Amino acid sequence: MSHELEDLLKTFEKKGINRRHFFKLMAAAGLVTAVGIYKAKEFSSNAKGKIVIIGGGAAGISMAARLNDWLDEPDITLIDPSDRHFYQPGFTLIASGVYQPDEVWRKQEDCMPSGIKWIKDSVAAIDPNKNQVATKNNGKIAYDFLVLTPGLQTNWEKVEGITQATLGEGNAHSIYDFEGAQKTWKALQEFSKTGGKAIYTDTYTKHKCGGAPKKICLLTDDYTRKQETRDKADLHYYTASKELYDIPFFTPRLLKIYEERNIPINLNVRVKGVDTAAKQVHFEKIETVGEQKVYTPFIEDYDFLHFTPPMSAPDFVREAGLGWTEGKLAADAWVMVDKETLVHKTYPNIVSLGDVAGIPTSKTSAAVRKQVPIAAKNLISLMEGKEPEEKYDGYAACPIVTDYGHVLLCEFNYKKEPEISFPFNLIDTSKEQRAAWWLKVHILKPMYFYGMLNGFA
Ligand SMILES: Cc1cc2nc3c(=O)[nH]c(=O)nc-3n(C[C@H](O)[C@H](O)[C@H](O)COP(=O)(O)OP(=O)(O)OC[C@H]3O[C@@H](n4cnc5c(N)ncnc54)[C@H](O)[C@@H]3O)c2cc1C
């Protein structure tokens, strides 16, 4: 599949047109408003202080770019061990054959904003009382202000019988991994020939892109239809939640799609383990009887499995005592920030955003896009000795790909109300739309690499 916009941008780049001219091109194409790109409130500050950013993913690089632009004399150190920067929303599209693997990553060095000091290393510990970070190979690094954006930790080993290295064995797959997404695409094509029973699961912890397991399920359905083998495929969706989706504006249509496609939904079920040799999933049904939770184990055979691993904040975040100590977000140590300002509740020189943040919204790069200007502005206020005043309303988006050509564009906020971006508010986004597919496949990735990572919201 050709991605015309990106090809065009690459051609411009080869001709020496600066990446920052992207927005002028987008504007010319009438797309700036379409995707809501803008440099939120241009301003500058002469605030001073040493900023350390942990993690150079969607949130870390975008914060580095934004702070670099806004501070007159930025002093920013970013710590991240990766060679490659992945556009993770593309993993679903690799797993369904829409993207090639090489389309979703760039060299990390090419994503790093100029002027940022990059330490290519992992953080092993944080001492928030001493304002100090310990790295694996570069000793201790002091900070005045910390941006905590290491993303989340994928706990593969919490599914018995599975390791990241053995993904694909016994036809048990997960798109929450770059290699895993590639193996899923091969397996999906094979499954469309052989048919059989396919099982799709999410997990009981908060996980990034809650829509991803649903998307790969619906794409399998559509792919087998296109191959005219759908009658040989028996698809089942299992969720650990009490409902398929919890944003009321979008849920009815999503439920209807599953019904129309003949995919039964099983609620309140979590995966305990996978016997890849026997091709069996070990489940546990969780029911509440009176005050008690009752756990009933059961086993299902499968021919193709897509599972979602449990996720948590990275261990070093938990060990630093930066996670929530009470409430639903405590078990997995999601960072204890104020859900509006994104400033840490105990340590006011720390901001945290992205997947690691303990806030009650979806873990998506769409959410990161809205969090970055708020967290950056608030951090600068703290550096200036002022109160943080910018407020995040919980905006997140999850484009649920419902078939090859349509997307249910779920955009919402903390109140679980729809918060639809222009011009999608002109169409009925309670239903899947072709325009949203075009956005998902052709626009969001260049917008991510050329826009968001360059400090544009
Ligand atoms: C299959 C899949 C589908 C998705 N689909 C969508 C979608 O459709 N729409 C959407 O908006 N979002 C989607 N997402 C979610 C999106 O990719 C994430 O929400 C986003 O990347 C979060 O950004 P982040 O910066 O918090 O974390 P990441 O982008 O994961 O970056 C974390 C960074 O921290 C670094 N790091 C980790 N540990 C350390 C350490 N100890 N020291 C230093 N650095 C460290 C890592 O190397 C990495 O560079 C999807 C994700 C997946 C996996």
UniProtKB/TrEMBL annotation:
Spans through the membrane: 21-38
GO MF term (any one): sulfide:quinone oxidoreductase activity
Keyword Chaperone: no
Taxonomic placement: Bacteria, Pseudomonadati, Bacteroidota, Bacteroidia, Bacteroidales
PANTHER family named in the record: SULFIDE:QUINONE OXIDOREDUCTASE, SULFIDE:QUINONE OXIDOREDUCTASE, MITOCHONDRIAL
Cited InterPro entries: FAD/NAD-bd_sf (IPR036188), FAD/NAD-binding_dom (IPR023753), Sulphide_quinone_reductase (IPR015904), TAT_signal (IPR006311)
Annotated ranges, domain FAD/NAD(P)-binding: 50-165
GO terms under biological process: sulfide oxidation, using sulfide:quinone oxidoreductase
Protein name according to UniProt: Sulfide:quinone oxidoreductase
Keyword annotations from UniProtKB, A to Z: Membrane, Transmembrane, Transmembrane helix
